[in-house]
Amino acid sequence: MTTQSIVIKVAREGDLRSYVGNDGHYFDLVDFNKVPSFNVLDTLPISRFQENLVEVFGTAVQFQRIWLCLRRQNGTCRPSKPLSALENKKSVGSLTSKFAGDVKLFLEVLNSCIPRNLCMEDILVFLKLYDPEQKQLRYIGTLYVKGTSKPAEILHKLRNLAGFCADEEIELYEEINFEPVVFCEVIDVDRTFRGNQLENGDIICYQKSSKPWKLRTHPSVQSFLEHVHALKDEQRRKICALEEDIVVLKCKSDLQIEQAKMECSQLKHERDYAVRQVGELQDQNAQIILQFSFADLQQATEDFKDQCKIGDTEYGCVYKGIIHNTTVAIKMCRTGLFQQEVSVLRQGRHPNIVTLIGICSEASALVYEWLPRGNLEDHIVCSNGFPPLPWQIRTQIIGEVCCSLLFLHSYTPSALVHGDLRPCNILIDANYRSKLYNFGMSSLFLQPGACPPNLIARHPYMDPEFLTNGDLTLLSDVYSLGVIILRLLTGTPALAIARRVSEALESDSLHLLIDKSAGDWPYTQAKQLALLGLSCVEMTRDKRPDLLTKVWTVIEPLTRKPPTASWRFVQSASRESCTPSHFICPILKEIMNDPQMASDGFTYEAEAIKSWLDDGNLRSPMTNLALPNRDLIPNRALRSSIQEHLQQQQRSNS
Questions:
Q1: Does a cis peptide bond (omega within 30 degrees of 0) precede residue 413?
Q2: Residue-by-residue DSSP string for 268-301
Q3: Is the distance from CB of 566 to CB of 587 less than 8 angstroms?
Q4: What residues contact 529, with CB distance under 8 A and at least 6 apart?
Q5: Of 287, 335, 420, 635, which is the most exposed, with the fewest CB atoms less than 10 Å away?
Q6: Residue 353 and residue 331: Cα distance in Å, rounded?
Q7: Catalytic residues, which ones?
Q8: What is the model's pLDDT at position 563?
Q9: Residue 48: CA atoms inside 13 Å, Cβ hemisphere, count?
Q10: 3-state DSSP: the chain helix, strand, coil percent, rounded to 5?
């Protein structure tokens, strides 16, 4: 018997979240043409195929449940039945008889809220929520119901998932058809799910009662989908009309055809330009820089009152002020630095580069976001009442500085060099995240015959080759990063720090040099950072490591988990041995107060996951896979369970 190669397409819940509501896709669950595909031999055991899914998606086999997706009369392909234990022992070739063409599967990730053993009465339904006010239909998630139960019994769950109040009237619809006409059937909440003819893979769309919205343009799910359908019909008609015009144009003279092609090319160019503009506005709207007048700055600082002054360096005088009820930092730039720094900060936003809010050209002033915890130098020497930084936060800062340098160095058409990377130019926000600051001094360094200002303070961080030949390169920043790594590791002054660390390594006494105020720094990690820091501060550039391929590959694994969990929030879960594990936030390791479900399917404490996302992390804290989106959904059912558990504990303790 000959073996054949078959194509298996696997959809996950993240694919559903990214599909529904995007690019006008409101009907059905997912486009299987856009999900991951696997080319495998038909003799491959399904159990082995599941191991392949572990490698690709990161979901362990014991947490996988595979559903067959079958095509329906309405043209959709929906999860129909889960593979049984017996079917899992067969080869993937046993699935092909059930399909015409590619094999289509739905991978369900099991957790504590999902039943492991399903019976004939269990029905898997998919939920969508329609907001008549916003005219928005979005995917909510999955839910298991009993065929003999009634929809009225799950109304409280639906309200919790949507964030409705407990007595909110809601309406339920089954999404049935889209082509050639839209058809959504009202679900009778007092009949059983079987009585409503619901089965595995069906979609329940629900909304607040349409009565308050009866004067709205699209008050119900049905009317909204009809509106979307009409738009698609109109687009199809326009396409058909354009195709007819093309046929007519082809019948005309060669000159007219050439002219039509030129016009078409111009239209395409304008369309592409418009699409790029929309994309830039959507993805980079944070780069909009406001224009302030000198009067605005005077009002914000009470006419530059001395009490508002928070710093005066070679970069300029810095004031703390309030503009539009927002606390900001206002820097009155020294001559020659204003344009240089603005040009750097206009290149794009990065979570670890200070945010430029606006400028005042007439005063050569920059308006920045306000960062309340000063700069890194203050934290290293514990000035201004700051406590010592724990080793977890120090590791995090090293990773953030490296990440921001990679961003600057990768800018095209020409890389950007910070040129004055020192702890005093690294600011700390309220969550102990670091942000680079004070760009532009490199322009003064490069002026012929110029001597860098405040050379004594800068000298330990400056590239020796730059001091020799005046040539500022990307590896100059690498040198400065190496000194910062060694300072955070040891807490000692920067001058001659490389010699002290090198001697400690040679005498096997590094543990004596590590800053004890940082806590019990894991020795293996500390030694890695010490060796990395020394390689960065080599006197000649050709011996220094490449930032991306040599430095980041060492730092990135050390910063993979959010270190704040180890410092500010970690509480031992073992102290609450009777607490169910799914009540514990995976990041904070403590019982959740406001559980929120992320697009990776895991539930986290709201404060922790929002901080994770706000810091620019695009991967799941649990699986390290790319997050489909940044949406968070309140897990109100879990919150109720947690509160009930805590109340029971309180009663038992009393």
A1: yes
A2: HHHHHHHHHHHHHHHHHGGG--EE--HHHHHHHT
A3: no
A4: 395, 398, 485, 489, 558
A5: 335
A6: 16
A7: 420
A8: 39
A9: 10
A10: 45, 20, 35
What DSSP designation does 207 have? Answer: E
Question: Is the bond into 563 cis (omega within 30 degrees of 0)?
Answer: no
| pTM tops 0.70, yes or no | no
Given a cut of 90, whether residue 66 has pLDDT beyond it is: yes
What is the DSSP secondary structure assignment for residue 134, as one 8-state letter? T
Residues 6+ apart with CB under 8 A from 165: 159
246 band by pLDDT with thresholds 50, 70 and 90: confident
Tokens read off for 397: 């800062």
Residue from 512, 515, 521 nearest 493 by CA:
515
Q: Is 623 helix (H, G, I), strand (E, B) or coil?
A: coil
Domains and their CATH numbers in the chain:
5-109 (3.10.20.90), 122-222 (3.10.20.90), 289-370 (3.30.200.20), 371-558 (1.10.510.10), 570-653 (3.30.40.10)
Our measurement of the distance from residue 115's CA atom to the centroid of its chain's CA atoms, rounded to an integer in Å, reads 29
Whole-angstrom Cα distance, residue 78 to residue 94?
Answer: 19
Res 486 pLDDT > 90: yes
For residue 596, report the phi and psi dihedrals to the nearest 5 degrees. Answer: -130, 135
Q: How many residues does the chain have?
A: 654
Q: Work out the average pLDDT over 290-295.
A: 89
Cβ–Cβ under 8 Å, residues 643 and 651: no
Q: Report DSSP state, residue 504.
A: H
Phi, psi of 510 (to 5 degrees): -60, -35
Give the contacts of 251 (CB within 8 A, at least 6 positions apart): none
Show the tokens assigned to 241. Answer: 């009309």
Q: Encode pLDDT of 427-470 as tens digits.
A: 998 888 899 988 755 555 445 445 555 666 678 999 999 888 87
Lowest-pLDDT choice from 74-78, 129-133, 622-626? 622-626
Q: Residues with Cβ < 8 Å from 473, sequence gap 6 or more?
A: 417, 463, 466, 541
